[in-house]
Amino acid sequence: MKIFKNSNKKRKNVPDWLYVVIIIYVLLLTFLSYARYIGLAESFDLKENGRILFLTLEGNFLFDDAGQLGYTGSSWGLHFSLLWLFVLPFYYIFSNVWILLLLQSFGFAIAIIPLYLFIKKKLNNELTAKLFSLVYLIFPTIFLTNITEFTFRAFAVPLLFFVVYYLEKRDWKKYFLLLVLFMSIMEDLSLIVFFLGLFVLFRKNKKQGLKTIILGLSWFILTTNFLIPFFAFNSDPSINSYLFYQKYAYLGTTPKEIINSLITQPKILASAFNMYDLQYLYLLLVPFLFLPFASFFIIVTIPVLLQNILSPNIGVLCYNEYHNIILIPLLIISSVYGLQNLQRIISKNIIKKVVFLFLFANIIFAIIFGVLPLILSNEWSNNVLIKNNFCFDDSFKLSEISRIKTAYVEYKQTKNIIKNIPNYESVKMSYRVASHITERRNLFFIQSRPDTWIENYIIIDKRDIKPEDEKEKILKKLQESYNISWHGSNVYVFKKV
User: Fold this and answer.
1) DSSP letter at 439?
2) Within-domain flag for 423
3) Which residues fall within 8 angstroms of residue 115, CB to CB, at 6 or more apart?
4) In degrees to the nearest 10, what's the CA dihedral of 205, 211, 217, 219?
5) Rounded to whole angstroms, how far apart are CA atoms 478 and 467?
6) 186 neighbors 75 (Cβ within 8 angstroms)
7) pLDDT surpassing 90 at residue 194
8) DSSP for residue 493
9) pLDDT at 1
10) Got the DSSP string for 241-253?
11) pLDDT-derived band at 117, boundaries 50, 70, 90
């Protein structure tokens, strides 16, 4: 009887309402992301990951033929992620990429449990734990990414919250186990572990902090210097290094050269900052009321911020981009530590007002920067809301739900047409169609072979043709060598003459 009571008490550490929130979130966000999926919206990573899983089941273990960075070969030659081993059984059972959308929604939603437990333990206030947990779910970066893209980093979020929870409990075995799982999702997450080690070293426990630093640094060196180059070289002997260093080639081709450039040539770092960087930092910090700066934990955000700010790809500076997925949990954690520090010097009444102001600021931010872009035009979102022209190039719209029946009809027609194309025929397709026809062998993507039209079938969504005024010209050009065997409102299927 006593054992039963204790186990029941432990269970109640997680209130029932959290499970209700998780179920509602998973159902709602999976529905919205699936609505976008059958509307043939662009999703490069969903297409690429679905293709890798299909080829793995066909006998080509983790083979990536999407042509990212001009590379074709083992997926571990681009990114070293052990999460494939977790996802693969689900794909084997359901044999469709929609299961990835469901798993992603679950990954984002389940993170609310360790977040709630962490905040409750740290601040000893259940109301604050509830409010901060809800802020996480309504933050635009989280739910917009959940709707519009698929990323392995979604599964790193709950692990990160569990890491800091067990850090506060001083349960070092679970802490280090979760750190290893966290790093195994993507190699660059080890940099976050390295900086987390600095925080633990100076604020928690020197011995465990040093262990964390060594663990993070060792994993980064192991994956980027040995494992990834090994798999890349076996796929393409001309490649003998971590390909993603190419993104920062203006700083150097190795971590040592990049760090040396930043230290010896500070002008490079200064010149990297522009209006987009300032806007990016402003949009990230304002909803948090700059609370992260009240905590030393803010240093853990450094690797993510530097990766994004120094990247030549300004698209990563969009708050709705999946590159910022792990940054939001870090800022929430830093805000919690910051709030704890303020409690020592500010009265409880003022702290209570800060918490409610925090919630209010995030509700307003979620409406303006999360809901409105789902309703209003891309032009308004880009030019009025955030004053750039790239963040909402292909944003999902809630109005598409009203057209879901029509979209589903074209989706099914497209799938049936593709299904009837013999497997020995070569097929090339554009982005929006790509995630729907990953389950065949003789397949090419327009990105991987951009200037050739030699395949037997071309399947293209005219919304993928850029610039706009080139659409009719390209469609007519294709008809010189191909016949239109079928077309819907957006999708065209060309068969070689």
Assistant:
1) S
2) yes
3) 132, 133, 136, 161, 329, 332
4) -130
5) 16
6) no
7) yes
8) E
9) 37
10) S-GGGGGGTTT-S
11) very high
SS (H, E, C) 180-218: HHHHCCCCCHHHHHHHHHHHHHHHCCHHHHHHHHHHHHH
* Encoded tokens for 224: 């980027």
- Identity of residue 479: Q
Q: What's the one-letter identity of residue 449?
A: R
Q: For the whole model, what pTM was predicted?
A: 0.89
- Beta carbons of 326 and 188 less than 8 angstroms apart: no
Q: What is the radius of gyration, based on Cα positions, of the chain? A: 24
pLDDT given for residue 3 in this prediction: 38
Residue showing tokens 């050739």: 452
Residue 485 structural domain: 403-496
Question: Which residue has 């409690």 as its token pair?
Answer: 343
CB 391 within 8 A of CB 382: yes
* Alpha-carbon span 429 to 443, nearest angstrom: 8
- Residue 185: phi and psi, rounded to 5, are -75, -35
3-state secondary structure of 420: coil
Task: Locate the DSSP E strands across 72-158.
Answer: 73-74
Cβ neighbors of 338 (< 8 A, separation 6 or more) are 291, 292, 293, 294, 295, 297
Handedness of CA 204, 205, 210, 215 (dihedral sign): negative
Residue 467 forms part of a structural domain: yes
> Span 219-223, mean pLDDT?
95
Domain assignment present for residue 416? The answer is yes
Q: Which of 278, 280, 284, 288 is nearest to 334 (CA)?
A: 288
Task: Give the separation between CA 191 and CA 451, rounded to whole angstroms.
Answer: 38
**Rounded distance between C-alpha atoms, residue 381 and residue 395, angstroms:** 10
Distance separating alpha carbons of residues 139 and 112, to the nearest angstrom: 13
> 424 in a domain, yes or no?
yes
In terms of residues, how long is the chain? 497
Domain count across the chain: 1
